[in-house]
Amino acid sequence: MKTLDEFVVLFAEQFFRTEPATIKADTVFHDLEQWSSLTALSVIAMVDDEFGVTISGNDLHNAVTVEDVYKCIITKL
Predict the structure, then answer these.
(1) 20 to 30 A Cα–Cα from 13, which one of 4, 48, 58, 60?
(2) Average pLDDT, the chain
(3) CA dihedral 13, 18, 21, 27 (to 10 degrees)
(4) Which domains does the chain have, with CATH numbers?
């Protein structure tokens, strides 16, 4: 199982033209200029590949921070 820190790195890699170090566990990802529906789909695909679980667009919509997304994934494992 991946740690929160490992997840943050994977999450940050889904953003085009964003310095990964700028994204932390407490980042409100919806506020990032690069957040888009395409990024959301990339995150959903990454979660499926890395964790073997499915999160929905609603899961992402209801999450505020990157850590919230991680916690959502953990509840589905």
Answers:
(1) 58
(2) 96
(3) -90
(4) 4-76 (1.10.1200.10)
Residue with tokens 């990964």, as numbered in its chain: 20
pLDDT tens for residues 4-22? 999 999 999 999 888 889 9
Q: How far apart are CA 22 and CA 75, in angstroms?
A: 26
The number of residues making up the chain comes to 77
**Cα–Cα–Cα angle for 13, 17, 18, nearest 5°?**
60
pLDDT at 17: 86
Q: Are 23 and 11 in contact (CB under 8 A)?
A: yes
CB atoms under 10 Å from CB of 28, counted, come to 12
* Cβ proximity of 4 and 10 under 8 Å: no
